[in-house]
Amino acid sequence: MARVWLGKTQVIHKLAFGLAVGLTLTVMALAWIGPAPLVRLENLSLDLRFKLRGERPPGNDILIVVVDEKSLKEIGRWPWSRDKQAELVRSLAGDGAKVIGLDIIYSEAEVTEYLRGLQELMDAAHSAPPAFAGLLRKKLAEADTDRRFVQSLREAGNVVLALPLLVTHTQSGAATSPEETPPDYIKKSLFMLVGHARSGQALEPQRAVATTPPLRVFAEEAVSLGHVYSLPDVDGVTRYEYLALTYGSEEDYYPSFALEVARQYLGVPRDRMSLTLGEGVRLGDRLVPTDQKSRMLINHVGREGRFSYVSASDVLHRRVPPGTFTGKAVLVGTAALGTYDQKTSPFSANFPGVEKNATVAENIIHGEFLEKSLWAGPLDMGLILCFGSALGYALPRLRALQGFLVALSVLVGYGVAAQYLFVAHGFWIDVVHPMLTILVVFTAVMVLRFMTEERQAQEIRTMFSSYVSPRIVEELIKDPAKATLGGQRKELTMLFSDLAGFTTFSEKHSAEEVVAQLNEYLGAMTEIIFRWNGTLDKFVGDAIVVFWGAPLEQPNHVELAIKCALHMRKRLGELQEKWKAEGNESFENGIGINTGHVVVGNIGAAGKKMDYTMIGDHVNLAARAEGLTRKFGSPIVITEYTAERLKQLMSAEETEDNFGRIRHIDLRKLGSVRVKGKDQPVVVYGLGSLGRSQKSVVAEDASDETLDMTDK
């Protein structure tokens, strides 16, 4: 049976490992395919990492000037006239702003009714006096707000304008071809150097199909242009910045608005800015990492308002302290309700687009980059394989609680490591697929173990519950390998107990009285046997057969047997007092104990009747020792083999137990007996218990009588 159980255990281990490997390969396939739900979960895990990290200071290099509710109340509805915007640019440049980024679209000329009327008068006044014509031209120039805006751009010399690029996709997700030829004047902002990384990874840069560029006169006076295309993830959260888009020729790449603002602030000439597809953008000696789509992972600062905001009306009304904008990168945008491009970030669902651009510029200026590099994919696959195979091997060999703690430790440990890499080094490693592997492998193995081991546990309970104590049964269930059944030669200590005069007692009493009193006695003795972790072999009428040392290994089997015998005698005394008080007849028992090597295992007819029992000469010797109890008048008789072990215990250091010390016993030599199968007589000893105040006694020469029991 042990071999069967061990064989089943090995099969379960192999089956669990195979199941774990199969699930691991499935998760690896999902990681390779990248289904939308798992991608979304991974993105959400990134958002969680931001929130666990918390907000961080953005520094003092960037200020945001916003057209807010206060500005609309004081100056009027948006959009303002170009002369007001020109005044705003002059104020910022006059206060020393290092670079000004206007996150506003200037794709149409501003023609007011006043300007249109003056133009009509100018067209009609062909024969007007020179003085009137000159005055008309002066008024016309004053009414041309676009000209005044152009002049402000020229005077500032550091203004970056927004370049809207339109990207459309087919149903398959591929970008469509350009619908028109880009105007030549926007090409001033192109990357001058474009290369390809030798990564072997497929490059998927976004292609624009159209644009609504700033007016030529504006673009020519601006220091640079930057595209403002932004595409959130499928859940609406903006996590990436497209640092480069291609438009027109396949070799023409346009930088983003925030990238151009950062480049101007850092003072990097355009000829020292290069794009390496699949690697990143290099600004002088600084590399801004990107993925195969030329996207930069945005390292968000926090909720909206983390950057310093200044109301545009305060700038126009000179309510800002001088030097506020000196040496700063200033981004101008809208933040009033209904006027701005609303984004969603990991921290907020109400994030102004201008602050998104400020965040990207801050990342580049301060080198605060997040990276999901090319090795992230292979690392993800390696971790999935490692976790799946390791847990598939270990979990079947661990107890349920141990397996849970191991799986939980791996899960939490990996999560902590991922968060550490994110916060300390800016690395984004996948957590969904490795953690999914841990969860599904743990769940599958535990379910398999429950389904298979529960049945095995029931078999063990059925086999041993009537033999041994519940504690030993639980030990065997926890480790079936300890159930060393199937016929093994082992050293055991055996105890035989029989009632004296029970036959006479049975003849004098009714069957009901005999059975009732016998059951009370056997029940009390069985309780004690299980208390000392003995294996109950059988009842033979009023006789009890017990042994120690199997099915569990019990190195202290002699000590357990001796203590059990003494306890049985003590309990019998209590029963005798009870029976006497009840007016019932009581009886005595004799106990014989022997230690030796025997064969133990399931013995009987397979499939019909089998008992877990023992056979051998030493079993017979234990039975004969019990028979000597009445001959020598000693309730407990042990053989020299048990006595030798007991003497070693008595000479050793005293150890405490629930029923006193092993040395508080009386061991007396009774004599020698000849038994079948033994050439030399076997010495037997009488065993009794001493009081706490008495010294233990070992009497060696109490009797020299040799009894012949070979025929008994």
Can you walk me through this structure?
- With 712 residues, this protein is α/β, with parallel strands linked by helices.
- It has three domains: 2-33 and 375-449, no CATH class; 62-366, no CATH class; 484-708, Alpha-Beta Plaits (2-Layer Sandwich), CATH 3.30.70.1230.
- It contains 20 helices and 29 strands.
- A hairpin with a 3-residue loop joins strand 23 (588-605) and strand 24 (609-615).
- Helix 5 (113-124) packs antiparallel against helix 6.
- It is rod-shaped, with a radius of gyration of 47 Å.
- 37% of the residues are buried.
- The model is unreliable at 1-6, 653-661 and 692-704 (pLDDT under 50).
Q: Strands, helices and their partners?
A:
Elements: H1 2-33, H2 36-53, E1 62-67, H3 69-75, H4 82-94, E2 99-102, H5 113-124, H6 130-143, H7 145-156, E3 159-163, E4 165-166, E5 193-196, E6 207-208, E7 210-211, H8 216-221, E8 224-227, E9 240-242, E10 244-247, E11 253-255, H9 257-266, E12 273-277, E13 280-283, E14 286-289, E15 295-297, E16 308-311, H10 312-316, E17 329-334, E18 342-343, E19 351-352, H11 353-366, H12 376-394, H13 400-425, H14 432-464, H15 470-478, E20 488-500, H16 502-508, H17 511-531, E21 535-540, E22 543-548, H18 557-582, E23 588-605, E24 609-615, H19 617-632, E25 636-639, H20 640-651, E26 665-674, E27 682-689, E28 697-699, E29 706-708
Parallel strand pairs: 1-16, 1-17, 2-3, 2-17, 3-8, 5-12, 6-10, 23-25, 26-28, 26-29
Antiparallel strand pairs: 4-7, 9-15, 10-11, 12-13, 13-14, 18-19, 20-22, 20-23, 21-22, 23-24, 25-27, 26-27
Helix pairs in contact: 1-12, 1-14, 4-7, 5-6, 9-11, 12-14, 13-14, 14-15, 17-18
